[in-house]
Amino acid sequence: MSPITLSDIQAAAARLDGHIVRTPLLESAALSAAAGCRLLVKAEVLQRTGAFKIRGALNKMMSLSPEARERGVVASSSGNHGNALAAAAKMFGVAATIVMPADAPAMKIDNTRRNGAEIVLYDRAREDRFAIVEKLSHEKGLTNVPPYDDVDVMSGQGTIGIEIIDQCDAIGAKPDAVLIPSSGGGLSSGTTVAVKARSSATQCYTVEPDGFDRMARSLESGEREKNSRNAGSIQDALIGAPTPGKLTFAALSANGARGLSVTDEEAMAAMSALFHHLKLVAEPGGAAAVAAVLTRKLDLKGKTVVAVCSGGNVDASLFAEAITGKAN
Q1: Dihedrals φ, ψ of 132, to 5°?
Q2: Which domains can be identified in the chain, with CATH numbers?
Q3: For the chain, N or C: smaller number of CB within 10 Å?
Q4: How far apart are CA 105 and CA 107, in angstroms?
């Protein structure tokens, strides 16, 4: 049984109305030709803070009691969730502490600090970010805002699914498949719940980095699987969660989602394609779903497919390498 419903997501959409960007659903004939299907790209790179995460973070912030806001919030994040929570906290004058891996892209660390958050760095390979967050929460009385396994966060991210179906309806498109980048599963679960509630025939897929496909393996086995490592991919936004969330996995399983994975090289090629055909700046993890379509991980010939381009917070040197094919 899914822990969130369409009504939860609709309530989040009403709460967020006027506070977030209704990002466009973009199409390029050249990109569709390369994919061998009609490819529609949900451009969350154009969202506030450069990624989808503001939806869930702001929905959570708006749901907190005044007392909880007064004490402050804490979260662990490879960058996008932390930056979004910092931005949401700033809107309400709330103190935010963000626990980030020391190897996170400099842009993500700088953006989060610029939004007024206190940054606590940790070693991704040797330290447990959840233990650090728990310690800070206990010592300072801060409210932990999970990056994915939280009903308010999932519902906020799910507003993307409502927008996708509304936008498809507006152009007379019926999506056969929706592909969504996934780490812990907040984005993929919320979006899947909304899409399936509005378009039951649409098949939803999570997309993860090769070697970090814990959600794909979990959906296949029916049990929450763990990644064997937590570092070693440039798709940094998609490797932070060692195991799928309990709530997110339940929501995806209840809605028949399936999982795919892409290599770093495939993600980089998708970044280049998104830039050249749609003029979008995507980070590696943000381009994962588009990469899965372009490399034909599924037989989608003649179908209408939506790929969520989830974030665009990428360091300039890596982006230059992606679009030119040359390391700097």
Answers
A1: -65, -45
A2: 6-52+151-324 (3.40.50.1100), 54-144 (3.40.50.1100)
A3: N
A4: 5
